[in-house]
Design brief:
Blueprint: E1 2-4, E2 7-9, E3 19-22, H1 29-43, E4 49-54, H2 60-73, E5 77-83, H3 86-95, E6 99-103, E7 112-118, H4 131-144, E8 156-158, H5 162-172, E9 181-186, H6 192-199, E10 210-215, H7 237-246, E11 250-254, E12 261-264, E13 270-271, H8 273-290, E14 297-301, H9 307-314, E15 318-322, H10 326-336, E16 340-342, E17 348-350, E18 356-357, H11 359-371, H12 377-382, E19 388-389, E20 393-396, H13 400-411, E21 416-419, E22 424-428, E23 433-439, E24 445-452, H14 455-469
Parallel strand pairs: 4-5, 4-6, 5-8, 9-10, 9-11, 14-15, 14-16
Antiparallel strand pairs: 1-2, 3-7, 6-7, 11-12, 12-13, 16-17, 17-18, 19-24, 20-24, 21-22, 22-23, 23-24
Pfam families: PGM_PMM_I, PGM_PMM_II, PGM_PMM_III, PGM_PMM_IV
Domain Alpha-D-phosphohexomutase C-terminal: 392-466
Protein name: Phosphomannomutase/phosphoglucomutase
Length: 471
């Protein structure tokens, strides 16, 4: 939060897809209450039910109460879901056909919190679909010195959706008949410490042929063991070591709000999100075609491996390429009627999950694929990773346009196709390599992702581009 000419300005905490800030600075009880009121007014929710929950961060319970106070003041009834993962919110918004929010800062450090919002049916709210209007109204209420009282205040009630959420996922992927698997799960002290025993364990539903070895299941928003961000390799080291130590078949790592899942094979090596996307796509295409769908659609962002669209075409589906970002993926999922979508960041989206992303459902598909046959995960994953990838490489540059111009001057030539769907993507016409260069929306970074048919070619392309970018 900042004051500009003695007026509230919330632009520091309102991002492209959610609200996120430092507790006590850019996100405070006063701000949250105003956002609760603005959410109801901007979305026209007076007289309707709004779902409100949050993760295990210390500030979440207070913020839940503040938001509920603002929302009920403007005439909405509030259904408190209390402790939830982000995909539990999406489930509840879908099955109850109600708008909702959850307080979480996902993988960000402990001093952060934020708000993820969804319309009824789990339709996402972004800066392009209502978030800016919510920000403007919240600023207005703060600058006016208070929230106007509605004609009739809303009521507050409570509901626990964990058991229903677990049962819903179990009905989508049946793990009861797979071979026994030893599974190490690193919850990172985040919400997967609550959802994993409910979905994969026997705390609520009958047990599955899974021997779950828990790492950091204690809910603790101070993240005492490691940051709940599996995208950073150092945060996977404990899981990798535990998988090898216990002779496990697979390892699963979730981020703080448990909407993303990362996979480790029995050797302790990561399975790329592109490989997981391809594996799940194969299963969803087969299931949809068996149900009579002629050409199931699979969504992938432009950073995923080209193995994904190749597999989709081979299996009788149609691949649709999108920009990076969950609001883009969800919009295209809906418009295309896609059965599944995957991103390089380990967000996985399912038509049967209201087009929303859920790390747990993706994990269940991987467990099913592994447990329905006898091969190891490393052997199984190999068929989905035929190419060599650089991963995402960030470069801090002072003049982003100039750095992009240097790369374009070098690579815009015969034999190379260039597209600007998101950043700039260069693809060799012989299919030997491709790379994408995107600018960060918030920092002076350029993000490089490169892929090639063999490791030396990928390294040559990667290093050449980085030399130009960092010149």
């Amino acid at each position: 939060m900042t004051l500009v000419n003695n007026a509230f300005d919330l632009s520091a905490s309102f991002k492209a897809y959610d609200v996120r800030g430092v507790v006590g600075e850019t996100i405070t009880p006063q701000i949250v209450e105003a956002v609760g009121a603005a959410f109801v007014d901007a979305q026209g929710l007076a007289g309707q039910t709004v779902l409100v929950g949050g993760d295990m961060r210390p500030s979440s319970p207070e913020f839940i109460r503040d938001f509920a106070r603002g929302a009920t003041a403007r005439g909405a009834d509030v259904l408190l879901l209390d402790l939830i993962s982000t995909d539990e919110l999406y489930y509840a918004c879908g099955v109850l056909n109600a708008a909702g929010v959850t307080f979480t800062a996902s993988h960000n450090p402990a001093q952060y919190n934020g708000i993820k919002m969804a319309k009824a049916g789990a339709v996402p709210i972004s800066s392009e679909t209502g978030l800016k209007e919510i920000q403007a109204l919240a600023e207005q209420y703060l600058n006016d010195g208070g929230i106007p009282t509605g004609a009739k205040a809303g009521q507050i009630s409570v509901r626990d959706v964990l058991a229903d959420y677990a049962g819903y996922l179990r009905n989508l992927v049946d793990l009861s008949a797979i071979r026994p698997l030893k599974v190490v799960v690193d919850a990172g002290n985040g919400m997967a410490g609550m959802t994993t025993p409910a979905v994969l364990g026997d705390t609520i539903l009958p047990g599955l042929p899974l021997d779950i070895i828990p790492l950091y299941f204690e809910l603790d928003g101070s993240f005492p063991n490691h940051p709940a961000n599996p995208l950073e390799p150092e945060n996977l080291r404990d899981l990798q070591a535990a998988v090898v130590e216990h002779g496990a078949d697979i390892g699963l790592a979730f981020d703080g709000d448990a909407d993303r899942c990362f996979v480790i094979d029995e050797k302790g090596n990561p399975v790329s999100p592109s490989a997981v996307t391809a594996l799940v796509a194969r299963r969803e295409i087969a299931r949809a075609r068996a149900a009579g769908e002629e050409t199931p659609v699979i969504i992938h962002n432009l950073i995923t491996s080209r193995a994904v669209p190749e597999l989709v075409a081979h299996d009788g589906g149609r691949a649709v390429r999108t920009r990076v970002g969950h609001s883009f993926i969800k919009a295209v999922m809906a418009s295309e009627g896609a059965v599944f979508g995957g991103e390089h960041s380990a967000h996985y989206y399912f038509r049967d999950f209201y087009n929303a992303d859920t790390g747990m459902l993706a994990a269940m598909h991987v467990l099913a694929a592994l447990g329905e046959q006898t091969r190891s995960l490393s052997d199984l994953a190999r068929e989905y990773e035929p190419y060599f990838s650089s991963g995402e490489v960030n470069s801090r540059v002072e003049d982003v346009p100039a750095a992009v111009a240097r790369v374009r001057a070098e690579f815009e030539r015969d034999g190379v196709t260039v597209d600007t769907l998101d950043g700039v993507t260069f693809t060799s016409d012989d299919g030997a390599w491709w790379f994408n260069l995107r600018a960060s929306n918030t920092e002076p970074f350029l993000r490089l992702n490169a892929e090639a048919e063999d490791l030396p070619a990928m390294e040559r392309v990667r290093d050449h581009v980085l030399t130009l970018v960092r010149k």
